[in-house]
Amino acid sequence: DIQMTQSPSSLSASVGDRVTITCRASQSISSYLNWYQQKPGKAPKFLIYAASSLEGGVPSRFSGSGSGTEFTLTINSLQPEDFATYYCQQSYSTPQTFGQGTKVEIK
Amino acid sequence: QVKLVQSGAEVKKPGASVKVSCKASGYTFTNYYMHWVRQAPGQGLEWMGIINPSGATTNYAQKFQGRVTMTRDTSTSTVYMELSSLRSEDTAVYYCARDWSSNDGLDVWGQGTTVTVSS
User: Residue A20: enclosing H or E segment and its boundaries?
Assistant: First the structure.
């Protein structure tokens, strides 16, 4: 199975900050990397697919990059509604594993 | 609009089975694979498996092999996930999620079904 490791596990940031979350795969997954946002008690929300393509309706302050084994999710100018937990997921092969999550909290 | 509506919460005893349904609407049901993902309390997301609603082929995570069965009913645009031999560690929220392009992520999710396993 491909292991996905996110860092950090949590971070504190202020409204307006730029935030970067890293996701590393245990082997190359090309660009088959997706990002989700989850708020407490809610289902995950699809943000980014194929490492860098923004899902429709997702604000442009979200961006993704990377290929192979290292990927990043960047949130420019953090907004109050962005405080949530973020997960990466590889869709290169089954089982389609998720990272352990990164909780973005208010500083 | 595209929507996935799951069945309600369940409470089961250890050793029992649970069957969760996920009814799709707003799109051609047989054109998109469906995944099941679970989340234990306070934990991350765990991929369980996938079903092709067109041919009913399935692919399960090794961890659940022998205990999970995913099926579909094309007449009602519904997929089902049955998990047997339940134990306390299976207490979780179970989600169905649509795979919009075979391997580029899960674009629509059900609201989740809480399954509690307790004696």
Answer: strand A19-25
Neighbouring-strand partners of residue B46:
B38
Instruction: State the average pLDDT for chain A.
Output: 97
Which chain A positions have a beta carbon within 8 Å of B95's beta carbon?
A: 43-44
Contact by Cβ (8 Å): B69, B50? no
Q: Tell me the pLDDT tens digit for each residue of B33-54.
A: 999 999 999 999 999 999 999 9
Provide the shortest C-alpha distance from residue B73 to chain A (in Å).
24
The predicted-structure confidence for A44-101, as pLDDT tens digits, reads as follows 999 999 999 999 999 999 999 999 999 999 999 999 999 999 999 999 999 999 999 9
Neighbours of B90 (CB within 10 A): 20
Identify whether the C-beta of residue A89 lies closer than 8 Å to the C-beta of residue B105: yes
Residue B113 CB neighbours (<10 A): 21
A68: left (phi over 0), alpha (psi -120 to 50) or beta: left
Contacts within 8 Å (CB) and 24+ apart, B26-29? B26/B1, B26/B2, B27/B2, B27/B98, B29/B53, B29/B72, B29/B74, B29/B77
The residue of chain A with its CA nearest to that of B94 is A43
Element housing B50 (H / E): strand B46-51
Asked if B11 and A62 touch (Cβ cutoff 8 Å), the reply is: no
